[in-house]
Design a protein that fits this description.
Structural class: alpha+beta
CATH class of the largest domain: Alpha Beta
Shape: elongated
Strand order of the largest sheet: 5-7-6-14-13-12
Strand content: 15-25%
Largest sheet: 6 strands, antiparallel
Radius of gyration: 48 Å
Number of domains: 2
Order of helices and strands: HEEEEHEHEEEHEEHHHEHHHEEEHHEEH
Helix content: 40-55%
Number of helices: 13
CATH architecture of the largest domain: 3-Layer(aba) Sandwich
Distance between the termini: 177 Å
């Protein structure tokens, strides 16, 4: 700003003279004023034309105006803008099951805002039915100063470093144990301890607060994010709802953080209407115009209904009863979630049944497509079976093996032996008779 003032007030004189078909325009810039004049008649001053002053601004005034214009682009309020498009947005989840009726949710939220006379243009709502991953948003892409909401993704970054072995719960950062730091940051929203964590990650405590490191917790492209996200940790409900969804779906990695958030603000925000019925892991963020351009109040939470949901409400310049409005919106969405549960369970059962049926059909199909054994293999199997069940046999004349033929062949040698015995016996008897006849002749 100082440099701008010096540039505008430097002692220079500059004249620009332009002839047009209808007259002449003159731009005068010097050390005291900036003037534009136009001639009403043809011919410039050198030709006797008459000049009429249109406006003339003192350089000091111009300096102030230009400085304000420049700063307007840097003020936090400049980030509070939304791309052209629908006020609401719905995105299906990855589970293949859909239970959210976007029109029904929009009606509930808009009716509430109208009934309470609230400004619809400075409030954003994010909602996620966590079992299906579906999301619904109201003014999803307005950017608000995050205040203390940044402490949730910050601690998620710390836990990731722990899981990677870089830190442990006993690690000491600036003289304090890491577990103690995280507890105080999330339960009591301690700013100084949050800055200790930011420095441990190599981040900027006065700017982004490590926001650029947390994009990986979402499915949003980098070019989605406003410049203020990187410079001053401005958030949208689209972004922070996805942060809470990641916190819930990866609860094993962030179990301690969830327990800390369940202890945070036990009597305010969503606890006002739902705290007696459900567990709530919540984080608020609030900053008044003493430190920024407006009053910002936000709260995001995972609310553990039978089928849990995430809710984020972000507001700018809302009335003093903002906590009640946030709590009421949480209750509206809890009631809507309960109304979706029956449809979710029915669709889940149908999906599981369809999966089981498909698995059974695939098994039958695989069996039907299995090729039958080839003919030689079947013949070999048959031979093997015969060998196991029938007695051993001797090859017959045709090369086959049958037990009957074998038995007949075994009888041949036996018969031959008997015949040989009979022949030998007959020969012996015959020889004996011959000897007796010779003996009788000798005696005679």
């Amino acid at each position: 700003m100082i440099l701008l003032s010096v540039m505008l007030n430097c002692a220079i004189d500059y004249h620009f003279y332009d002839r047009t078909s209808t007259g002449h325009a003159k731009f005068l810039w010097n050390s005291t004023a900036c003037c534009v004049t136009i001639s009403a008649a043809a011919g410039g001053p050198a030709e006797g034309g008459t000049m009429r002053k249109i406006w003339c601004v003192d350089k000091k005034i111009l300096t102030a105006l230009l400085a304000l214009a420049l700063l307007a682009g840097l003020l936090p309020g400049a980030a509070f803008a939304e791309e052209e498009g629908s006020v609401t947005d719905y995105a299906a989840g990855s589970a293949g099951i859909a239970v959210i009726d976007p029109a029904a949710v929009e009606t509930r939220i808009e009716n509430y805002l109208e009934e309470n006379g609230l400004n619809k243009d400075t409030i954003s709502v994010g909602y996620c039915y966590l079992d299906t991953g579906e999301t619904w948003f109201y003014h999803p892409d307005l950017w608000y100063y995050s205040a203390s909401l940044y402490k949730v993704p910050l601690c998620m970054l710390i836990n990731d470093r722990e899981n990677a072995g870089e830190f442990s719960e006993d690690s000491r950062l600036e003289g304090m144990e890491l577990a103690y730091l995280k507890e105080n940051v999330l339960v009591y929203s301690n700013n100084d301890m949050a800055y200790t964590l930011i420095r441990a990650l190599g981040g900027d405590t006065a700017g982004s607060k490590c926001s650029e490191m947390t994009i990986a917790y979402t499915d949003l492209p980098e070019d989605y994010f406003a410049e203020s996200f990187f410079l001053s940790s401005y958030y949208s409900v689209r972004y922070f709802t996805q942060i809470l969804r990641t916190l819930y779906t990866h609860s094993d990695d962030y179990a301690d953080l969830i327990e800390y958030l369940k202890q945070a603000e036990p009597d305010t925000y969503y606890h006002v209407t739902l705290g007696d019925t459900y567990e709530i892991a919540q984080k608020y963020g609030a900053l008044d115009r003493t430190y920024t351009d407006a009053d910002y109040t936000h709260a995001g939470a995972v609310i553990y209904t039978p089928h849990p949901f995430a809710v984020v409400v972000m507001t700018k310049d809302y009335p003093y009863a903002y906590q009640q409005y946030i709590a009421d919106i949480g209750q509206l969405l809890a009631e809507y979630t309960l109304s979706c549960d029956e449809a979710y369970e029915a669709q889940l059962t149908a999906a599981e049944t369809a999966e089981e049926t498909a698995a059974a059909e695939n098994t039958v199909r695989a069996e039907e497509e299995t090729p039958l054994p080839t003919e030689p293999a079947a013949e070999a199997e048959a031979i093997g079976t015969t060998a196991e069940t029938q007695p051993l046999s001797t090859p017959n004349a045709e090369g086959g093996n049958t037990s009957e033929a074998g038995q007949k062949l075994r009888l041949i040698p036996m018969t031959a032996c008997l015949l040989l015995i009979l022949i030998l016996t007959a020969a012996a008897i015959a020889r004996g008779g011959s000897k007796k006849k010779k003996h009788k002749k000798r005696r005679r």
